[in-house]
Each structure stands twice: as structure tokens, then as C-alpha cells.
Design a protein that fits this description.
single chain, 175 residues, alpha+beta, Aminopeptidase, 7 strands
Length: 175
């Protein structure tokens, strides 16, 4: 895709509905068979978008950023970065979320968004960064590994969704 058709930029409150849609549709495609189907079916793009709108209107806290990738002026994905939330990764940054509309997977939008998110973490002064990925999400794991991320040995079982989700932590130094 020509570079002028794809753009990564800071998110604005008006992007929130598209962010919510990308968030929900990506979850529904990527996590099918990995999390309970009734949970995926109940995801609400409008509600998710409203949460992102409030986040953007309040202004991301220090060290955080919400980026979007748009193609032909249509938001197709987003990434959220900020300080690490892990005690053992203090002083580092964290890629907290990165999601694309499923029909945009494999077209370069994710690579552009991940590169911009990594630059944003570095610009906030972080020397390294982490992210958490579902243990069985091989597609995402290959994506991160191709961009220089590697498992660091940390694992956790996230119960915040009401069911257990096994996750693996990835880490990378920032340039």
C-alpha cells in the first residue's frame, strides 16, 4: 500500500467509535476458540468506543499515548502504550493494546502501528518495553517476534475477564 494512503497518528476523541469497532472485531476474530464464545458475542463496540472517548477527552496520563492507523482516512486499528504496570518491569514501557480490523491483518498496517508505538515508548524515555499476549495466540506471537520482541519467561493467568486467560510476557530493548 502506498505510504500516503496509510497514516499513523495520535488518536482524537472523534476516532473513538472506530477504535471501539477495531477493538471488538479484533477480539472476536483473534480470540475465537481461546475465550468463551458468549463473552465474545457480548462485546459491544459502542460501549468500548465510549470508554476510549472518555480516555481521550480526559487526556492520556503522563507517559501514555493512544495511536491510530488510518487508511484512506478510515481508522482501521489502534495501539495504546504507557508505563509498565508490572512491578518487575519498573522504569519500562508497555504496549498495552494493539488491535486491527481483521480484514486489515497482513497488509502492513499492524507493522506500521507497532513501529510507531515502539517509537512513542522510546520518546517517553523508556529504555525497554513489555507486552502481554495470549499464550496460544501464535499469529500475534509471530508478529511480535518478527518486530524484535521475545518472551522473557514471565507468565500469568489473568482472571479480570471472569475466566482464566493464560498470558506470556514479551520484552524488547528500545533503541
Amino acid at each position: 500500500m502506498p505510504d500516503d494512503a496509510r497514516r499513523v497518528r495520535a488518536a482524537e476523541p472523534t476516532d473513538a467509535p472506530a477504535i471501539g469497532l477495531a477493538h471488538v472485531r479484533s477480539w472476536q476474530a483473534a480470540y475465537r476458540g481461546r475465550v468463551p464464545q458468549d463473552y465474545l458475542d457480548a462485546l459491544d463496540a459502542d460501549r468500548r468506543g465510549e470508554g476510549w472517548r472518555r480516555y481521550l477527552e480526559a487526556g492520556p496520563p503522563g507517559g501514555e499515548a493512544l495511536l491510530v492507523v488510518d487508511v484512506d482516512d478510515r481508522v482501521v486499528g489502534f495501539a495504546n502504550v504507557g508505563p509498565s504496570r508490572d512491578d518487575d518491569a519498573a522504569g519500562g514501557g508497555e504496549l498495552r493494546a494493539i488491535y486491527l480490523l481483521p480484514e486489515r491483518w497482513g497488509l502492513g498496517d499492524g507493522r506500521a502501528l507497532l513501529a510507531a508505538a515502539t517509537r512513542a515508548l522510546h520518546a517517553h524515555g523508556f529504555g525497554h518495553a513489555t507486552l502481554w499476549v495470549l499464550d496460544g495466540n501464535e499469529r500475534a506471537r509471530r508478529f511480535y517476534e518478527a518486530a524484535g520482541w521475545a518472551p522473557d519467561g514471565a507468565t500469568k493467568e489473568d482472571l479480570s475477564f471472569g475466566f482464566p486467560v493464560a498470558e506470556v510476557r514479551y520484552r524488547r530493548p528500545l533503541p
